[in-house]
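pipeline stage [seq->struct] | target=DnaA/Hda family protein | organism=Dongia rigui | residues=214
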Amino acid sequence: MTGRQLPFDLPPRHAMGAADFVAAPSNQAALALIESWPAWPTPALAVHGPAGCGKTHLAHVFQEKAGDAALFLTSPTGLPDLPAKPVLILDEPQLDETAFFHLLNRIKNEGGSLLILSREAPARWDVTLPDLASRLKAIPSVEVSPPDDALLAAVLVKHFADRQINVAPDVIDYLLKHMERSFAAAADIAERLDRAALAEGRAITIPLVRRILS
């Protein structure tokens, strides 16, 4: 069969285990925080940084360390029945201030742990409830910084590997010089190149990258 293929919308397999995490100076402090659990200085800790910087992967590393009892949530409201000493992960939480305040109290009183993932440090969130503002300012937070060349290259390779694609080193070098320098952009360009290559029945080469980026 010749001609172009239809790009089936199959999700990539994102490898999210500890062995798949790409450690680098920009995320070293956050990884150290995750690995130090359960010897945290406070019941709640936060990791913040831009979209696509690896916060969710760090949370999966944390869940792997904490065990299946660690629960991912997007809101402090409507919580399921929780075990003793609950271990929770709030990923970009919807901020119901009263519910969030009660959740922090519950975690503290029950000896649990709460990992917060957000773009801004909790201390900088715009909240009106004074007691909550005080609690948020007391939550230790570490930032995942923008990537350097080595980390961005590794992230690109990982995104392609998640899609079962091997890309030549010269293509990665070209991408580093011409793409937006962010984790989110790396995820986006990997998806766009995968779709284009599949639709055209060709490998991912510099000419294809040049055309897609333009």
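stage status: PASS
auto-comment: The domain at 27-143 is CATH 3.40.50.300 (Rossmann fold). Residues 183-200 form the longest helix (18 residues).
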